[in-house]
TrEMBL record:
The keyword Cell membrane applies. Residues 405-444 are annotated as: Disordered. Its main location: membrane. CDD domains: MFS_MefA_like (cd06173). Residues 424-444 have a biased composition (Basic and acidic residues). This is MFS transporter. It is a multi-pass membrane protein. One of its GO terms (cellular component) is plasma membrane. The keyword Membrane applies. Pfam families: MFS_1. The chain crosses the membrane at residues 53-74, 86-106, 148-168, 222-245, 257-279, 286-304, 310-331, 352-373, 379-396. Gene3D superfamilies: MFS general substrate transporter like domains (1.20.1250.20).
Amino acid sequence: MKALIPAVLREEPQFARLFAGQSLSVLGDRVSFVAVPFAVLAVGGSASDVGLVAAAGLVPMLVFTLVGGVWADRFRRHRIMLASDLARFVVQGAAAGLLLAGLAGVPELALLMLLFGTADAFFMPASTGLLPLVVAPERLREANALRGLVQSAGLVVGPAVAGLLVALAGPGGALAFDALTFAASAAFLLRLRPREKAVTGGAGGTFLGELRAGWAQVRSRTWVWSGMAAMAVYHVVVLPSVFVLGPVIADREWGGAASWSLVTAAFGVGAVAGDVCAYRLKPARPMALAAAALAVASCQALIIGSGGPVVLIAALEAVTGVGVSLFFVLWETSLQTHVPEDSLSRVSSYDHLLSAGLMPLGLVLAGPVSAALGLRPTLFAMTVLGVPAALALLCLPSVRQLPADRPVADGSGPPPADVPPPADVRRPGLADDPAHDRGLDVPA
């Protein structure tokens, strides 16, 4: 039985606690993804209202993600995640209560999703930055793969659980379940004991100074800013083919939601397989493999618009699911390995801002562009833009040559390419103050 438990969970007890809590939270997120649109429709909302409420949850990403990155590098990251989980517990609990009491309307749901998205924006940079503090460097790839496996499995299991909960208890009951998963995640975070961040210096004492220092970490590494640019293209250009145009073409040509469910489930199965591969593979040049995987993932629009049989489209989408999982596991592991610990959350916040934060732009434009150009020409154009962006990433020497492990500085030669030398000064007003890390502390 012990052999069935991954080594990283057996040997890293702090990560095991984090993993348990986040696994429950991910399941709740998948349930919420299905329940919220049905909640809007249940209170008399229209399709436009569904889009409004969804956008309300995404807009805070543009406003607060960078703030969350600075805070996560200033304070203890697991405490920020704890505060975010508690806030989301309250928000989802309030939404569930209003729905179950018959008092909810579209404005109330939109406001609550705005608050939910704000807490979410603080959680994600802290989460990315926390992992190196609870896992040994040689286990980072395995830890990211396990996290990705839970995310991918949620794509398959979550909608089924959501459908059952909505049928039995309505959208309010489903959101109450999501609220409880945040409470469970918070309980695990309360017991977490991550090690302290290493301080390498280089940031200013003001918010803008620290933000600029975080951007300097991005700008000084070609593989980082080019990877973010490629991801921005993927989120803004390619993913709208899945979230907007895919359901449209399924409704018009494939016979409706059942066929689209088959395609999305196949993608989820492929994503699970990709996470298993990421757990087992040990590539010497992880970003080279990641860029190739992103090129495969960027073929989704072409596959959806190919006009082939639904079974073939589902099989090909499963292949792109493998590519998506491989890319994100290897990308996050590379960031956590090569970016200084005390800058990691700020770098991650730029990552989220330039990828997921910009995705609403693509979602808004996909419909009007397809109406003007036609559905298939738009899907083909998405591929023409998306695949070359990933291949351009693969062409960069700093991407192809990035090693799996952080280079060891022994003083015998120049510093590795694309890595700035360490700063000579620590953060004034913060790093020199032993109490600066207590801003979000609560009793453990």
